[in-house]
Specification:
- It holds the Pfam family VWA_3.
- The protein has twelve helices and 25 strands.
- The protein is of the alpha+beta class and 533 residues long.
- A hairpin with a 6-residue loop joins β24 and β25.
- The chain starts with 13 loop residues before the first strand and ends in an 18-residue tail after the last strand.
């Protein structure tokens, strides 16, 4: 199959390292589902430094959207002016006020960053029209909210068409004063002010719907100042639009400058391309780090079997993805390396190769959370920490496939448990935090147990039994939800345990789970050692 044809060249000064891992030996069944882990590292190769980096500022368009209370401390307004003043020279920029209207430049278009224009924009931040001004709009009203500002940014980036630079980024600065927003963005001056308000569920639905429209069109970083913002909404914005949501103080200019600097050092957006062998289909694709969300991929017109994601922003660092491939393998040759797919980003390509065997090595079963802490909860079946002599030795690639899913599930349960606790859904919080604690215990991940312990008493980590604290600092809880705990890597090297300490197997005849050192299946008696090499 080779490298995908018609791919996209890596931008000058940017290098991509793409690697895939898959459990190589598989049984040739009629309905096989393969799980593939892809790891992409982006690095600057030294060709873009100093003045060369400055030459790229013209590729950047930044929209700064403001959702702050007009009566907030003056430090926030000063920080907003400093943020605009620190924009890289030559980039295109616009300032969007809390009501969804572009307040600078005054014609509603785009300005080019220069000393004079940035000074004028800085003066604009001192006017109340930029902020959520309830005194002017009346009691019970507010700004466009998160959904309205996303819609306003989308319209702003569309304004100018192809003349808007290719690297498009939204910096959303919020204290939650405008709410989530689920009404119309205000019209021209003199029209109705503010978006409609209502229940949180409707607001979250409006944010989700607007994110569907914005995905792939621009990226977004969120700076969250102390206030009544909803952590689930800000987290969704950052993950879906490939950015970060960061809790900040009123003097946030340094954090804003860092976020913009990361973007103007980014490569222009490129898609992830997948080429499938005839008969192979893509069952699912999701980003697992640094975000965690499904990633749609569509077939390229006129090229059967070639799929592309939306254009993704690539900046220095590592991202991981999980693919599921489905196929009928009954007609394939045995004991032969077969390439089922190939992945490509920029100039980097990687094949997905498997080998069909009638008696493949038993597949490891990753740690899994048992029923959470209620009556009948039982301890997971233990696996020996050290394989018996002559037992199975595993390669790093195979361990990565086994472990990465469990680590990511642990992160998701921890995050969802905190969100449930913030929303006062205590039963769900205990269930999810208990699952995170149980997985952390099996994986040997101490930081995750410590995170659970900040908001709940860990009664029994082995059984996943926790009890949330009666009193929780809700502001600190909100801030912790926005953080990605334990760093950005979901790879097993970040864990303090050898992978063989928790690997188990499913018997290839009856499906019964067995420990890593088991010689025979305790249900059907099938020898488990013969297939181990």
């Amino acid at each position: 199959m080779g490298a995908p044809a018609g791919g996209f060249a890596s931008p000058r000064g940017t290098a991509f390292d793409l690697g895939v891992q898959v459990w190589r030996e598989q049984s040739p069944r009629a309905n096989v589902t393969l799980e593939v882990s892809a790891r992409i590292t982006v690095r600057e190769d030294g060709a873009r430094t100093g003045n060369a980096a400055g030459a790229r500022h013209g590729d950047l368009a930044v929209a700064v959207a403001v959702d702050l209370d007009a009566d907030r401390d003056a430090a926030a307004r000063e920080a907003l002016a400093e943020t605009l003043g620190a924009l890289p020279p030559g980039c295109a920029y616009a300032l969007i006020g809390a009501d969804g209207r572009t307040v600078y430049p005054f014609d509603g278009g785009w300005a080019t960053a220069s000393a004079a224009s940035l000074r004028d924009a800085g003066f604009t931040t001192g006017t109340r029209q930029v902020y959520v001004d309830r005194k002017a709009w009346g009691p019970g009203t507010g700004g466009a909210g998160v959904a309205g500002l996303l819609a306003a940014a989308r319209a702003q980036f569309d304004r100018g068409g192809d003349r808007v630079p290719p690297v498009r980024h939204l910096l959303l600065v919020t204290d939650g004063s405008g709410g989530l927003g689920h009404g119309p963005v205000p019209g021209p001056a003199g029209g109705a002010g503010g978006a409609g308000r209502g229940g949180q569920g409707a607001g979250l639905a409006a944010v989700d719907a607007e994110l569907d429209r914005c995905a792939g069109r621009f990226t977004c970083d969120v700076l969250a100042l102390d206030g009544p913002w909803e952590p689930a909404a800000l987290l969704a914005v950052a993950e879906r639009l490939h950015g970060r949501a960061t809790p900040v103080a009123d003097r946030f200019a340094a954090a804003a400058e860092e976020a913009v600097a990361a973007r103007h050092g980014s490569a222009p957006e490129l898609p992830l391309e997948i080429v499938l062998r005839h008969g192979v289909r893509l069952v699912g694709l999701e980003e697992t780090s640094p975000g965690s969300h499904p990633l749609p991929a569509r077939e390229v017109q006129g090229r059967p079997g070639v799929l592309r994601t939306q254009a993704l922003p690539w900046r220095p660092g590592t991202s991981t993805y999980r693919l599921k491939l489905g196929l009928d393998a009954t007609g394939d040759p045995l004991a032969t390396d077969l390439q089922l797919a190939a992945l490509s980003v920029g100039d980097s390509h990687a094949p997905v190769v498997v080998r069909w065997e009638t008696r493949p090595r038993p597949r490891p079963t990753p740690p899994r959370a048992r029923p959470h802490g209620g009556p009948g909860a039982r301890e997971p079946e233990a696996a020996s920490a050290t394989p018996a002599e002559g037992g199975l030795a595993y390669g790093a690639e195979e361990n990565t496939v086994v472990v990465a899913g469990a680590v990511e599930l642990m992160r998701k349960e921890l995050k969802r448990g905190k969100i449930a606790l913030h929303d006062r859904r205590h039963e769900e919080a205990e269930r999810r935090l208990g699952a995170a604690a149980q997985l952390a215990h099996q994986l040997g991940v101490e930081w995750a147990l410590e995170e659970v312990g900040r908001v709940a008493e860990v009664v029994d980590a082995r059984l996943g039994v926790v009890r949330v604290h009666e009193a929780v600092d809700r502001e600190e809880l909100k801030r912790s939800i926005l953080h990605r705990e334990g760093g950005t890597s979901a790879a097993p090297e970040a864990m303090a345990v050898e992978p063989t300490a928790f690997i188990t197997f499913d018997c290839h005849r009856c499906g019964r789970t067995a420990g890593a050192t088991a010689q025979y299946c305790i249900v059907c008696g099938t020898a488990l050692t013969g297939a181990r090499r």
